[in-house]
Amino acid sequence: MGTVHARSLDPLPMQGPELGVQADDLDLGEPEHEEKQEVLENKDVVVQHVHIDGLGRTKEDILTYEIAEVFRAKNLIDVMKKSHEARQRLLRLGIFRNVEVVIDTAEGVDALPNGLDVTFEVKELRRMTGSYNTMVGNNEGSMVLGLKLPNVFGRAEKLTFQFSYGTKETSYGLSFFKPQPGHFERNFAINLYKVTGQFPWSSLRETDRGVSTEFSFPIWRTNHTLKWEGVWRELGCLARTASFAVREESGHSLKSSLSHAMVIDTRNSTILPRKGALLKINQELAGYTGGDVSFLKEDFEIQFNKTLFWDSVLSTSLWGGMLLPLGDKPSCIADRFYLGGPTSVRGFSMYSIGPQSEGDYLGGEAYWAGGLHLYTPLPFRPGRGGFGDLFRTHFFLNAGNLCNLNYGEGPRAHLSKLAECIRWSYGAGIVLRLGNIARLELNYCIPMGVQSGDRICDGVQFGAGIRFL
């Protein structure tokens, strides 16, 4: 009896591609044996049975949604494609270590001459898994220890404890995640956490103890997240030399906020894209669900990427945001925007643009930043087709401004103030892509439009992170 084995479909990594050349970087030739494939495509078949072998604590009802499309296949090629797609959906649940597919002719008294049986051979993850890794943030690094209980109740729920110790931040948290059966993109999460961060540019130390709940769901091509967060914040001075303005902010506050985020992302990579666009909009309203902090906060991020000649990429980006205090109290230093550094307006020190007091940067209630970038292969293409393709030459022009607004004035006055004292910079350097995890930049920067109180980094500047202007 003939059997088609689909074991050549290796599992996709759950956390993005490994360090190496991306799929979009490869030039795949045309498939061979087109005549043979056409014969297979024209042969009508019926999928009579789908089996899942190897289940332990997983409930079968949640898997029914993931494999339903296999029954709609009309020919052998379609069966293989839909079986592969179902396999990826099963792996995406994060409850299986491995999933293999076996396609065989149907057996039994009800077997049809053109009937097929599809079997998914699964291997579940352990009840408890541990992890140790390093994480790169925006110009900071962390050591992360994690403990995970996957598939807690048998329907892809996940309970996670994570401890992170970094150069500027230490945190630990407990989270519970539950997807909607059949719609993994719709999911619910609850988080308990404590975060202690140091912000030397403001001589500030902040400790947050909080709880949050969030619901994520897609609408058409957009992804949305609704979130409620309640956090007890404790602010203190990082040094005895902290300015009076920072000392004034010290103390305790309770923030309760509702927020909404919308994302449209068509980029082929989040770290160093070659094509596609990104639109991200965030709104946060604090004070209407309790707490002693009240404000309305809006910010956005736009990015466009276009592949040009000679394997070069042109990228443009624009960030912006406004913070409107509600009530009589001024905004808190922990809620304001910050700008400057190797991940935003290059050529300036980390978050060293805008209002400051005695050398401590206080942030601002409105900002914008824009960037124009040209990424090209290294000269003479050393290491082409291998490690050398992880490097790109980088030419950039950045600009931006951060300030406080008088909300008694009109929009024209606000735009006028944001257009004053624009900081900008230009330069060139080298970019290294670390898989889909992070990227490193080493640039020679020439800052321009420097204002009194700004700290600059004239010359070589190193940056590491996951989000760059």
Automatic annotation (TrEMBL):
GO terms for cellular component: mitochondrial outer membrane. Residues 45-125 form the POTRA domain. Keywords: Membrane, Mitochondrion, Mitochondrion outer membrane, Transmembrane, Transmembrane beta strand. It is found in: Mitochondrion outer membrane. Its main location: mitochondrion. GO terms for biological process: mitochondrial respiratory chain complex assembly; protein insertion into mitochondrial outer membrane. InterPro entries: Bac_surfAg_D15 (IPR000184), D15-like (IPR039910), POTRA (IPR034746). Residues 1-24 are annotated as: Disordered. Gene3D superfamilies: membrane protein fhac, membrane protein fhac: a member of the omp85/tpsb transporter family. It holds the Pfam family Omp85. It is a multi-pass membrane protein. PROSITE patterns: POTRA. It comes from the Eukaryota. PANTHER family: SORTING AND ASSEMBLY MACHINERY COMPONENT 50 HOMOLOG (PTHR12815:SF18), SORTING AND ASSEMBLY MACHINERY SAMM50 PROTEIN FAMILY MEMBER (PTHR12815). Belongs to the SAM50/omp85 family. This is POTRA domain-containing protein. It comes from Onychostoma macrolepis.
